[in-house]
Recover the amino acids of this structure.
């Protein structure tokens, strides 16, 4: 008990001392900003399509109690790559669209983008996607317009 009170008192004293300004070595003024290589997979890359299908199935099962899955993605085409010419420091993105075949037999348009440095913990590439008509939480509303360039 006495040990806990000592630790608590030490913590109070440490938190009550004023903070000092950053030293010259702690300042980041020599950093020039993010450097991107613009290396993102193509729209029809198998790993991209697999990731979209997997995440779609997980989202449907986990959040919407649905057994819908993506059976296939057809008519894939690139819409734009790094469309923001005036912003060279923007994260490189490849915008794509296509048509998905869902396990219920229906077809829906899909819009997705592949982003550099947006994988888990910022390592590798990541994918943002939206299936028109199945954006149930309206994250890219209206009609997945916010998923396009």
């Amino acid at each position: 008990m006495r040990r806990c009170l000592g630790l608590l008192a030490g913590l109070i004293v440490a938190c009550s001392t004023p903070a000092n300004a950053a030293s010259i070595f702690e300042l980041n003024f020599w950093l020039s900003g993010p450097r991107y290589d613009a290396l993102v997979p193509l729209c029809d890359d198998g790993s991209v399509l697999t990731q979209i299908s997997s995440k779609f199935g997980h989202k449907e099962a986990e959040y919407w109690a649905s057994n819908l899955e993506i059976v296939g993605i057809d008519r894939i085409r690139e819409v734009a790559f790094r469309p923001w010419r005036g912003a060279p420091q923007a994260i490189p993105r490849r915008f794509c669209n296509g048509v998905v075949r869902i396990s219920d037999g229906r077809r829906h348009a899909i819009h997705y983008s592949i982003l550099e440095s947006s994988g888990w913990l910022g390592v590798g590439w990541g994918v943002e996607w939206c299936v028109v008509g199945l954006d149930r939480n309206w994250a890219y509303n209206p009609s997945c317009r916010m998923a396009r360039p």
Q: What stands out?
A: The mean pLDDT is 84. The domain at 46-147 is CATH 3.10.450 (Nuclear Transport Factor 2; Chain: A,). Helices lie at 2-16, 46-64. The radius of gyration is 23 Å.
